[in-house]
Amino acid sequence: MTNYEVILDKALCSNSKALKELEYYAGAGDEEAQFHLAYYYAVRKGDNSLYQYWLHKSAENGYKAAVEILKEEIEEKLRYKQELRSELSEKGLELGLRAFLKIVGI
Description:
This protein has helices at residues 4-12, 16-27, 31-45, 48-60, 64-104. By secondary structure, it is mainly alpha-helical. The chain has one domain.
């Protein structure tokens, strides 16, 4: 079994051989390697699209940590959407009340 954390640490230190090894295993479908490659792209490269790609691949292949992260990201997006919807609703009511008061001359 390959220790992907060691390979990831080397890749994060600009070790191109380690990165190629991580890419090889991830490309071959290893869900743990995919998870660590996602981390590499997020931390070292700041590339959100490749981070998301490899994180989703890892989760699709059943890697529990990737599934949990995606679950948390989805829950956060839903919370944000609900907060935004609530805020917009409040602003809409406030604007509607202002318009009503203006029409009736209050």
